[in-house]
Design a protein that fits this description.
Blueprint lengths: L4 H13 L9 E9 L10 E6 L5 E5 L5 E8 L4 E6 L6 E6 L6 E3 L2 E2 L8 E4 L6 E4 L2 E5 H5 L9 H4 L5 E3 L8 E3 L8 E4 L2 E2 L23 E8 L12 E7 L17 H4 L1
Parallel strand pairs: 1-7, 1-8, 6-9, 14-17
Antiparallel strand pairs: 1-4, 2-3, 2-5, 5-6, 10-11, 11-16, 12-13, 14-15, 16-17
């Protein structure tokens, strides 16, 4: 087979334009097992998971072993998980919170039917979650973090494997001891790194790239080995913005000093 010069040029251009695609974690999951009072699995039970702020929902049925696994959910919450099965009282678990890239395990025990539905309030709510090589912060935890600069870097430094250069001109973030330029930053799955290498912090601007009030979830991973993460040598920072709603709210902040400080 002969390859003309034009064909070779097109082939070379096509190969050169191919870039690896990495799907950063922007969703969460809820899985669990539905059983009766004797520990026996309840098959074909209806499991409905509702994201309360937006009203979106996912419905599943348990398998023969009573298990269900709902993935691709919004990160955050709260969620309401309702389980219905013939001959059993309906049971709902409210206040379930999830984290980006993580799975919440929720086991439900159904009672024989008495005509009374049961509502359980989740008591395992975590505003900030830190596990090996990973830190997750939700909106409540972010609101409780003091940041004079209103800078994303002040959130990242909460991760035990992340260090912040105190130099105010750079404020470079190192994750797992790697170069700040080796980190990957995404917002809702879209990469927003410093392509030109002009800033020491690895971000495209010297200041925070997004308002702290707009962040619903922040996930920091040090040298992740998950195949879904890539194009990095240090750490992965995934930012998920809040969803819109019909409720209007805002915030304000400022810095001031009293007469004693001024004198």
């Amino acid at each position: 087979m002969r390859l003309t010069a034009i064909g070779a040029s097109v082939l070379a251009l096509t190969v050169a334009c191919v870039q690896p695609a990495f799907a950063q974690e922007t969703t969460s999951a809820v899985r669990g097992r539905v059983t009766d009072g004797g520990g026996r699995p309840v098959a074909n039970a209806s499991v409905t998971i509702v994201h309360m702020p937006s009203g979106t929902q996912v419905s599943q049925s348990t398998d023969t072993t009573g298990n269900f696994n709902a993935s691709g959910l919004r990160a955050g919450g709260p969620f309401r998980v309702t389980v219905d099965a013939p001959s059993y009282d309906s049971k709902a678990v409210e206040g379930v919170q999830t984290a980006a890239g993580s799975t919440v395990t929720l086991n439900v025990v159904l009672d024989p039917q008495t005509g009374n539905d049961i509502v359980v309030t989740a008591n395992a709510k975590r505003n900030g979650l830190a596990i090996a090589g990973q830190t997750s912060l939700n909106a409540d935890a972010i609101q409780g973090i003091a940041s004079v600069n209103r800078d994303l870097r002040d959130l990242l430094r909460r991760d035990p494997l992340t260090s912040l250069d105190p130099n105010p001109r750079g404020r470079a973030i190192s994750i797992g001891g790697a170069s700040p330029r080796g980190n990957r930053f995404t917002i809702d799955g879209l990469a927003i790194g410093d392509d030109f290498g002009l800033n020491a912090g690895g971000l495209p601007s010297a200041r925070g790239i997004v308002s702290l009030d707009a962040i619903d979830q922040l996930n920091v991973k040090a040298v992740p080995i998950d195949i879904a993460e890539g194009d990095l040598q240090g750490g992965s920072v995934n930012i998920i913005l809040k969803s819109g709603s019909n409720r209007f709210h805002g915030s304000s902040f400022g810095i001031f000093g009293d007469d004693l400080a001024a004198g």
